[in-house]
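seq:
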Amino acid sequence: MAQLRVARADVEHIRTTFSGMSERHACGLASMAVSSYRYCTRRPAKDTGLREQLTQLAQQHPRYGYRRLCVLMRRGGEAANHKRVHRLYREAGLSLRRKKRRHLVRHRAAFPKVQASNEEWALDFVADALASHRHLRILSVVDVFTRECLALETDTSLGSVRVIRVLEQIITERGVPQRIRTDNGPEFTSRCFIAWCLDRRIELVHIRPGKPVENAHVESFHGRLREECLQVSWFPNLFDARRQIETWRGHYNTDRPHSSLGYRTPEEFAALNRAAGPCSAGVGQGASNADPLPHAPIPAQTGVAINESRRMLR
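struct:
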């Protein structure tokens, strides 16, 4: 389409510069078919309203791509074909610029997929700052299977006791997880946290140092959190930061379509699997629900060496 506009502009320039030149002669000089020069679009006027609606949604959600915007338009009652939405999305200049990453071929051992909610929770911290440049820490708790964000605890400092308190609140509502996956931060390797996992009979998985890809689900979630909330928000104080971040968490769980869940929201996917029962766990989940990567276990993770872990805590 862009090449057609350029060629048509060339023909207009030739006919303007050399008055009296025929249309066919000018098209021949520009190497353009006369039928293409005379073509008039027959696109319906509906595209105008569709483009305006698409632009409004893109302004509300500046980091959404055309597929996610198409899902939102269909939810609003607009029967929009994804190819038309993509065309209007490009014509309106709404395309996102993404950095091209180098892909490395890595060989890893096969690991069983997570088959149910509460089978594995992923924990990690993300950092930000207030308007006063005061440091801000956010604890993320994500259910690996349903992709639900179970908590976004925000404060200027978060220790292991605070992490345990947040997890106890979630357990009261959802039950005890089978496994927790974290990095090697001091909050997750303290005696207090390891003792709590042993008391709750929760398997504690520490990823290898310098391998954040082994906790990929929460790292991917942090990318969405930073792009759609932290980078587009201004926090004048701690209380406003907690309010805005918690509001985004509700939007993420209930309204935001997730590409790995067949463009369902995490709550819709969790409700679908609860209604279908344990035999159909994983039905409808996208192929991007990758297997958890292998990890290097420590004594606190295995039931065989549980006595050794207790000895370490003495």
